[in-house]
Amino acid sequence: MIVKAKESNPKLRISILCCEFGISKSSFYRAFSVKDKDSEDYEVIKYVFEKHYQKIGIRQLKMLIEREFGLVFNHKKIARIKRKYKLETKIRRKNKYRQFVKKKQEHETFPNLLNRNFRQEKPHRVYSTDITEVKYKGKKAYIAAVKDLCTREIVGKEVSNRIDLKLTNSAMNKALSKLNQQERSSLMVHSDQGVHFTHKSFRDLLKQNNVTQSMSRKGNCIDNAPIESFFGILKDHLDLKGCETIKDVKKEVTKQINYYNHRRPQLALKKMPPSEYRRHLN
Asked: What are the Cα distances from residue 237, in Å, to 1, 73, 94?
């Protein structure tokens, strides 16, 4: 009777049928020599699995079994039975070539054209750029800066509480906006191989302005030493104790960069601040 009832309605549980007929579950298995005690659970899983065209995974199976049968199977049990009975979920395989092409389009590195030739004779020939992090009131802020290697002047900057692509692109846009077309065409921008600088949006920004792109070798921070040196100086002068908001941080960063550009003399610049040295060269 139990077997017939089960065959006519697969949704019925053996344990419920045994209870109805007043026999124990173990007695049923012994009487019918059923060795595989997973068979009943397998039938339930298989029913739901095939009903959904074999395209659902363990988590979906668990939720659907609870909804349709009111039964609670844990993830490990479903995974074990799927492996045991070879219930393989049909999934759309990722196209490895397409993934490679997409990654190639989004990110690309460039050779180290600068090759640590940090001493430049003319302004607007080589810019160095990078990002640094500062902290205020237990929060983080990020500074992107662009430095002219000839005059050591900071020609572009951006400050944000988010380290996104907009941060670096905005800083570079500000730097490029000060140049004419001829100056842009003769410019090289050097950076590390960070995702902000290998990303298509940054590469396109430079390409649209006919700017040559150069990158440090992987794992060689010295290849971009000039901008790292500036960040060290900037952090020595920043006073973020009174900063409550990102707006306060922006004001403080602007204040200190103005000091660095217009008032802080440098021995290598004939004891002039960067902006004065640029005027001197002209």
From this structure: 87, 61, 50
